[in-house]
Specification:
Helix content is about 5%, strand content about 45%. By secondary structure, it is mostly beta strands. The strands form 7 sheets. The chain has an 18-stranded antiparallel β-barrel. A hairpin with a 2-residue loop joins strand 21 and strand 22.
């Protein structure tokens, strides 16, 4: 932004604040200094059963007639220091230290409070800027990163590096929505308020485990989203009251991915590898849509004997037309979850829980894996077909006349075009060519049958300003659904846009940071393992306490927690001598996390934050230490003697079992 525009903006803000007096702003007097000050209104209570929007808690008002503008914001400066938090290996340079910041400013305009007795119309805009100091265009909250540098590669040959840095940081819209009430249209009062909200806003079900608010986060192994948008999902929600102070509802629709805006979308030639599709273009109605419904029932609300009971049943259905196991798109899914969450509090005791089950199906399509690629053949860069063999040419260094290791060059187009869909068989009319043993993948279905359950409780001793809490969680796990090309039931739980770290007992390293490359699907028929950060194939028991003394007067709280983690699906050990996954089962015990979450008010609304955490790996990580995860960068490094990593010691530089440490210091200011 130019200096001229900056001065214009500053002048506009000053003029707006000065002119607030003439726009009937509510003013109060500071009795100590005899100076006028803008009134900070008390938070408006959320209607019974309604989920409160993530809007700023502070702010000041500018009021004109029956229209009110609330401006609020937050600035947060963070510093992180982490060791062994990615691979639990002290031999690697896995020690991270960096600064990060986030600045939000929110504009909330409402109309109708005086006319109707409630906000009949509301529009909300939240602007955000955040990033890592000294790392332009790095906006992700949690970024496990790659094991190696971002090189431009072609069959092992490095051509250079690439970067997308820009000279200026970006400000984006994290929320932007319009909400209006239907009651005025039908001349009804606001006792049974019915509203419609449209735009970009967060929406979740229950605790956000089955369906969370982190638009973009998903499970890579099922072809779902694996990136974070850091903004609310675009959608529409219809909300209303059925029984006053007792029963409310939400009906939600979201558009996660639009693939039909233009002819370029519908004519995209992306389905060339699908067998039996009939044409190569994408076609119509290939979007990603979601519908959801939930009710919030309070059978007891501040009852003198029972207290408050809140029950939330829910269901959602997701229609995804394009997913990827290997080549996008090679699968589609029609699936969802249904569940129930419960909260109960009475006389200082509170407890709650949630259970959810997946349902639906994922269809993996019949595909031809054969694509063009480059290889280095005798020092020459040759373009070949990836899954067609020349059985008459000997391979490099071999005299056998019918070797099956020589890949056909891409000049042999006729052989690739012959519609013969049999693996490991000669192509009719071309006896010298043969399909590779895995060229064609058959179609198969995954029936979703995963489930999860969480429960926790807490008791507050008011006289001591102490709260004690316990928690337990279980999520089902399974093998990689793409590893067996047959119809089957996938029993691992799937959470969509989920980032659950606990409610009454928090986990920092395993569930909040989620940088640890946790291996899953360790089977003795595989050479490598996948890593997964989602809330699946995991169970834990946790204990915590919170001390929040009131006599300090600065909002002090100290919350230590201890959590014990296990996986729920069988895994196999990694044999470091043989360099492969063995037949022997690995332990289920993943380890113990100790953490302490603390905060302290400093000046006004400035708060100091300090989080400390340690993770002590259990027998599971000792059993699987050294296993390659995905692309084995360490094996590539060990192939070059100049890197001083002998092949027999490559496992020492992969996943380990050393302790992990996490330290976070932050300052947060709200206005």
């Amino acid at each position: 932004m130019s200096n001229f525009k900056t001065k214009q903006l500053a002048a506009l803000l000053v003029i707006s604040m000065i002119s607030a007096n003439y726009l009937h702003c509510t003013i109060q007097t500071d009795t100590k200094n005899n100076m006028p000050a803008m009134e900070i209104p008390a938070p408006v209570p959320t209607p019974a059963g309604k989920k409160e929007d993530k809007k700023a808690e502070k702010g000041f008002l500018i009021k004109y007639g029956d229209t009110t503008l609330k401006i609020a914001g937050k600035t947060k400066i963070d510093h992180y220091l982490q060791k062994n938090i990615n691979l639990l290996n002290g031999r690697l340079p896995d020690e991270l230290e960096y600064f990060k910041h986030c600045a939000d400013i929110d504009f909330d305009v409402t109309y109708g409070k005086e006319t109707y007795g409630y906000d009949a119309l509301e529009t909300y805009i939240a602007l955000r800027h955040k990033g890592v100091w000294g790392k332009p265009l790095s906006y992700a909250d949690k970024d496990p990163g790659q094991l190696g540098p971002s090189h431009i590669r072609l069959e092992g040959t490095i051509f250079g590096t690439h970067s997308h840095n820009a000279a200026k940081s970006l400000v984006w819209l994290s929320q932007g929505w319009l909400k209006f009430a239907l009651n005025p249209l039908f001349n009804q009062d606001g006792e049974y308020l019915q509203t419609i909200k449209l735009g970009w806003f967060p929406f979740g079900l229950g605790r956000g485990i089955a369906l969370g608010e982190n638009y973009g986060m998903g499970k890579e192994l099922l072809g779902l989203y694996t990136y974070s948008e850091d903004k609310g999902a675009p959608g529409v929600v219809i909300s209303g009251t059925i029984l006053k102070d007792r029963l409310t509802y939400d009906l939600y629709y979201a558009k996660f991915d639009e693939r039909g805006k233009s002819l370029g979308d519908t004519m995209s030639m992306e389905r060339f590898h699908i067998i039996g599709h009939g044409h190569p273009w994408r076609g119509e109605n290939k979007d990603d849509d979601l519908v959801a419904a939930t009710v919030n029932w309070k059978p007891f609300n501040n009852h003198e004997n029972v207290g408050t009971v809140e029950i939330k049943p829910y269901i959602f259905y997701n229609m995804v037309s394009a997913q990827r196991f290997e080549l996008l798109p090679d699968a589609w899914a029609k699936w969802g979850s249904y569940g129930l969450s419960l909260e109960h509090s009475v006389n200082g005791f509170e407890w709650g829980g949630e259970v959810a089950l997946n349902y639906g199906v994922q269809q993996a399509l019949h595909i031809d894996r054969n694509v063009k690629k480059f290889i280095n053949r005798d020092g020459n860069l040759v373009q070949i077909f990836s899954h067609i063999l020349d059985v008459q040419e000997p391979s490099e260094g071999l005299a056998a006349p019918r070797s099956e290791k020589t890949l056909v060059t891409s000049d042999s187009k006729k052989a690739a075009a012959v519609p013969f869909y049999e693996n490991n068989e000669e192509i009719p009319g071309f006896p010298q060519f043969k399909n590779d043993k895995n060229r064609f993948r058959p179609a198969f279905k995954n029936i979703f049958g995963g489930w999860m359950g969480v429960i926790d409780a807490a008791y507050t001793i008011k006289e001591l300003d102490l709260k004690f809490a316990v928690a337990y969680a279980y999520t089902s796990g399974d093998i990689n659904p793409a590893s067996e090309e047959r119809d089957k039931c996938y029993k691992g739980f799937i959470g969509l846009h989920e980032w659950y770290s606990g409610k009454r007992v928090k986990s920092l390293i395993l569930l909040d940071e989620r940088l640890l490359k946790r291996p899953v699907h360790l089977r003795n028929d595989r050479e490598t393992a996948n890593d997964d950060i989602s809330f699946s194939d995991i169970q834990y028991a946790g204990f915590g306490a919170t001390w929040a003394p009131k006599y300090f007067g600065k909002g002090v709280s100290i919350n230590p927690n201890v959590l014990l983690f296990c996986n729920t699906h069988d895994a196999h050990k990694y044999d470091r001598k043989e360099g492969k996954i063995s037949h022997e089962k690995a332990s289920h015990f993943m380890g113990t996390e100790l953490n302490c979450i603390s905060r302290c008010g400093l000046i006004g609304d400035l708060t100091f934050l300090l989080n400390l955490s340690m993770f002590f790996p259990g027998q599971f990580f000792r059993d699987v230490a050294g296993v390659p995860l995905g692309r084995d960068e360490i094996k590539e490094l060990a192939s070059d003697p100049a890197n001083n990593i002998p092949q027999r010691e490559a496992h020492l530089f992969r996943l380990g079992s050393d302790n992990a440490y996490h330290c976070y210091v932050g300052l947060e200011y709200k206005f």
